[in-house]
Design a protein that fits this description.
mainly alpha, 8 helices, coiled coil, 462 residues, Taxilin_fam, syntaxin binding, Taxilin alpha
């Protein structure tokens, strides 16, 4: 009892040291009931005798564990062989399906298609007539039997074509002689012969072109025939291998069925033994239960007392958790207020920096423009000074020659007055641009000082 009390105090201390967790309103009562139930279950377990596990369970598990890998190995081996057969015979056929010409072969003529159809059933019957186990030998025999029939058909076709050609030539010769007899002069006969020769030459060329096309179709049909024969031989091999696999699967299924029947008999015998042993142990447990009823009643009374104490402690703990939750909520509100103030100050600082940057860019542009104008005025001033020096030299020359011509002196004086006016005007403009440049520099310095002061203020706030 003291041990249970110390354990509950340690648990209470560990819970108080952890971070507070918000609990449901009825959590204390549910936790108290759970602890009471666990206490009673531990007391009941101490008072009861140990129930021996059923020995059939581990034996059955061991048998199933030992038999499962063997079954799995055989099934995996058979499935692997089946996949190999499908990969070797189906994938090769799918890869070799399109012809060498890239599927662009022209369709055969109707007469040739009918001949192929008439010859293919005979050859197919000859190939399928043999046994199924020796697929390669049958395929070679079928191909050898197919070739003589094909050669006979070609010879018959050639003979029929030669007969047709002979008949056609006889008719054409008679018609040609009749047309030549109708003509009177040998020049007309020669012209008619030349014309007929040109027509025959054109027909010969057309027949040569058709013959090339038919030869190309014949080669394509031969290739298709060879491809179909190879596919047929592969299918026969696959069929033989699949039949052997089916036999192995049937044999494996029979062995599995026999093993299952034998294992069921053994399990039935073990179950009978275990039921008898279980009945004996059940009687012993009933005797021990009767002996420990009094001890269980005492432990139940102790559990009720401990539950009352634990209930009081849980109520105190719930009050403390409520107080801690209120404190945390107050802290969260304060933190949110501080974050809002900080965000507002950052936004104000950002707006001030943007406004200051715009003013700074404007003043810099004005300063650059005024400096450029000042440089331009300086260049004009130097140019005018050079002109003034030139004119002073000319004035000295004119002063030397003043005695010679008074008219020249008057004109020069007028020009000098004009130049002096122009110089005064330019000096006024230079002074004006210089004052503007000084004012812009002064404003730029003031802006830099303001930026530095704002940066220091922002750093102090942070």
């Amino acid at each position: 009892m003291s041990g249970a009390w110390s354990c509950s105090r340690d648990q209470k201390r560990g819970c108080s040291e952890r971070t507070p967790v918000v609990r449901a309103p009825g959590w204390g009562r549910a936790r108290t009931k759970q602890l009471i139930d666990t206490r009673e279950s531990t007391a009941w377990g101490k008072s009861q005798a140990f129930v021996f596990p059923s020995p059939t369970a581990p034996l059955a598990q061991e048998d199933t564990k030992s038999s499962r890998p063997a079954v799995r190995d055989v099934s995996e081996e058979l499935s692997r062989q089946l996949e190999d057969i499908l990969n070797t015979y189906c994938v090769d056929a799918s890869q070799e399906g399109p012809g060498e010409d890239g599927g662009q072969s022209e369709p055969p003529e109707p007469e040739e298609a009918e001949k192929c159809r008439s010859e293919s059933p005979r050859n197919g019957d000859q190939e399928m007539g043999g046994p199924e186990m020796n697929g390669e030998k049958e395929s070679t025999k079928g191909s050898e039997e197919f070739r003589p029939g094909e050669e006979c058909g070609e010879r018959d076709q050639k003979k029929a074509q030669e007969k047709k050609k002979a008949k056609g030539l006889g008719k054409e010769i008679t018609l040609l002689m009749q047309t030549l007899n109708t003509l009177s002069t040998p020049e007309e006969k020669l012209a008619a012969l030349c014309k007929k020769y040109a027509e025959l030459l054109e027909e010969h060329r057309n027949s040569q072109k058709q013959m090339k096309i038919l030869q190309k179709k014949q080669t394509q049909l031969v290739q298709e025939k060879d491809h179909l024969q190879s596919e047929h031989s592969k299918a026969i091999l696959a069929r033989s291998k699949l039949e052997s696999l089916c036999r192995e699967l049937q044999r494996h299924n029979r062995t599995l069925k026999e093993e299952g029947v034998q294992r069921a008999r053994e399990e039935e015998e073990k179950r009978k033994e275990v039921t008898s042993h279980f009945q004996v142990t059940l009687n012993d447990i009933q005797l021990q239960m009767e002996q420990h009823n009094e001890r269980n009643s005492k432990l139940r009374q102790e559990n009720m007392e401990l539950a009352e104490r634990l209930k009081k402690l849980i109520e105190q703990y719930e009050l403390r958790e409520e107080h801690i939750d209120k404190v945390f909520k107050h802290k969260d509100l304060q933190q949110q207020l501080v974050d809002a103030k900080l965000q507002q100050a950052q936004e104000m600082l950002k707006e001030a920096e943007e406004r200051h940057q715009r003013e700074k860019d404007f003043l810099l542009k004005e300063a650059v423009e005024s400096q450029r104008m000042c440089e331009l005025m300086k260049q004009q001033e130097t140019h005018l000074k050079q002109q003034l020096a030139l004119y002073t030299e000319k004035f000295e020359e004119f002063q030397n020659t003043l005695s010679k011509s008074s008219e020249v002196f008057t004109t020069f004086k007028q020009e000098m007055e004009k130049m002096t006016k122009k110089i005064k005007k330019l000096e006024k403009e230079t002074t004006m641009y210089r004052s503007r440049w000084e004012s812009s520099n002064k404003a730029l310095l003031e802006m830099a000082e303001e930026v530095r002061r704002l940066g220091q203020a922002a750093g102090a706030e942070r």
